[in-house]
Amino acid sequence: YILVILLAQILFSIFCWWQLNRPRPLYLELERAIRKKEFVPYAQPIVDAITKETIGIEILMRWKHPFQGIVRPDLFIPQAEDSGLIIPMTDLLLKETAKQLREYKHDLPTPFHVGVNISPQHCKSSILLDECKVFIDEVSNHNVILVLELTERGALEVSEFTRGLFYDLKMLGCKIAIDDFGTGHSSLVNLQEINLDYLKIDRVFVKNIGVDCTSEHLIESTVELAKRLSLRIIAEGVETEAQAEYLKKQGIENLQGFLFAKPIPLGEFLQNYNQNISV
Ligand code: C2E
Ligand code: CA
Ligand code: CA
Ligand code: CA
């Protein structure tokens, strides 16, 4: 009798182990991870090009996988976008970010820029507006500015609906940035239509500063364009002092990159920041 129970237990353990470890389609894994709230916010500072002071952060998603550890977004964002799961994942990220920011709301510089990556399909529904409203209410600090980073890659279509959505988002106090600028195909018309606030110059151009003059020309003409449209520029992927110096000389306002800091868990960033300003 005992032997039968023992055997049943062993079989059950094997079954559980197989359930946990069998290869499953990424889609099902992502759904499970959403339920378990495994997507967490990391933060990378954005600094003022002149003073080098932190003016805000970009929130970058990480997957805290129970067996694989921290998974980088390039491994799962494409599939999350194709399946539409990116929408609940982003919602989760916004909620967690708001919760953590709220705790430190009296210790942040004013204004404090919080960039969040938004996929093109998210801009096709009005859920985004509701989620941003919830975020702003939750943080309950009027100095926190939510900046929606829309990638230029997916060629954002500007329709009657998106025009209305962006208008409402702006009325709510959100700002709009075009991410990876220079790598996609957004036409000037497109850019003017959605009343942008920021351009983020992609790191492929920053990397080639001092190496290839086509990248420098692109940066210089982006600066011209930004001036004409009254946009601010954030340069991404700044890794060297020479790049930072060049970008500052061009009149670019904000910089982001490993030269200043790598992305770290948001909670850790907020704690460090708080310690640094109170000493
Ligand atoms: P991105 O929006 O262009 O984010 C910047 C990426 O560059 C981040 O990679 C960041 O860690 C990296 N980076 C920053 N500074 C440097 C530097 O100095 N040198 C180098 N080599 N890299 C630097 P990460 O975190 O792996 O994210 C990759 C991409 O995944 C993001 O590119 C974004 O397109 C996407 N992503 C991340 N989080 C989210 C999210 O919450 N939602 C969506 N839809 N996409 C996200
Ligand atoms: Ca981004
Ligand atoms: Ca980018
Ligand atoms: Ca990029």
Cα(first) to Cα(last) distance is: 68 Å
Ligands, ions, cofactors: ligand C2E, calcium ion
Number of helices: 11
Percent of residues in beta strands?
Answer: 15-25%
> Given the helix and strand composition, which structural class is it?
alpha/beta
Transmembrane segments: 1-18
Main location: membrane
Organism: Photobacterium kishitanii
Keywords: c-di-GMP, Cell membrane, Hydrolase, Membrane, Transmembrane, Transmembrane helix
Description:
With 279 residues, this protein is an alpha/beta fold. It is built from eleven helices and ten strands. It has helices at 2-21, 26-35, 77-83, 86-103, 127-139, 160-172, 188-193, 203-207, 213-228, 241-249, 266-278; strands at residues 39-48, 54-65, 69-71, 112-118, 144-151, 175-181, 198-201, 232-235, 254-255, 264-265. It has an eight-stranded mixed β-barrel, surrounded by six helices. Strand 4 (112-118), helix 5 (127-139) and strand 5 form a beta-alpha-beta unit. Helix 4 (86-103) packs parallel to helix 5 (127-139). The radius of gyration is 21 Å and the shape is globular. The termini are far apart. The model has no long low-confidence stretch (mean pLDDT 91). The structure holds ligand C2E and calcium ion (3 copies). The site of ligand C2E has 24 residues, from strand 2, helix 4 and strand 6.
Key terms for this structure?
279 residues, hydrolase, binds calcium ion, alpha/beta, EC 3.1.4.52, 8-stranded mixed barrel, binds ligand C2E, 11 helices
How is this structure best summarized?
The protein is α/β, with parallel strands linked by helices. Helix content is 47%, strand content 21%.
